[in-house]
Amino acid sequence: MKFSVFQLSRKGGREKNEDRMGYSYTKESCLFVVADGMGGHPEGEVAAQLALQTVSLDFQRLARPKLDDPAEFLENALLSAHHNILKYAIANNMEDPPRTTLVASVVQDGNVWWVHCGDSRLYMVRGAKVMARTRDHSYMELRGSGVTSVNPDRFNRNVLFTCLGSPSRPFFDVAGPTELHRSDRIMLCSDGLWSSVSETVIARELGNKSVSRAIPDLIDAALRKAGASSDNVTAVALEWEMPGAERFVSEEDPSAAGAMPPEPPAEPDGSKAQPPLP
Length: 278
What we know:
Blueprint: E1 2-10, E2 19-25, E3 29-37, H1 44-62, H2 70-91, E4 100-108, E5 111-117, E6 121-126, E7 129-133, H3 139-144, E8 173-179, E9 185-189, H4 191-194, H5 199-208, H6 211-226, E10 233-242
Antiparallel strand pairs: 1-10, 2-3, 3-4, 4-5, 5-8, 6-7, 6-9, 9-10
Helix pairs in contact: 1-2, 5-6
């Protein structure tokens, strides 16, 4: 596989950055993850970190050198992350478990699959046009999808109806496979980005710039528009080149929160996978 990848996270106006992001890869498969710890509950950053670690470790264990069923992997990994957050809460006698959103994507065999829970998003851009994006698990997105069973007077339209770490089983969506074309861009991001930058701008920036230029520009634009009250802003994006070629990873900000090291150790079969985060 040949692809370029760039990841970046900024704290914005918050006291701490509760977003986490990362990517892992072997010679035949790659994984991308963004988790956004939820405010209003304790230790959102812990929930996001546990989600990132769980999904990444499952990928490293099962991608030898590729996954048997990427859609099944994403579903199982998301549920494992949810259970690990609940186990953490029980072990620490927490009445209110930490919670997080999650969006994760696998690229393999020239196709892309993704799973998401909450309002962290995935965008697929081709030729400065959004070909696909996830739909948030919120009243606002349910209304846009034609669902009418939710009473708008009872809920804040931006309230999420599901997340990892909640007492009930999380609701999530799995999509794919979707065939990738050369120069397609895939971006995973927290709501700190898309809530301040329009879809038109996202498509234009990703479609006309390298990911190493587009992601910093999008994050800077989100921070400027949101001002002093800005949420954490996090994104990881890839530009797809082709299968069966040497991989290429672009330079990235070494201060990126929750980022995994770009150069993983070699496995016995010659593939590479990222080590777990501390």
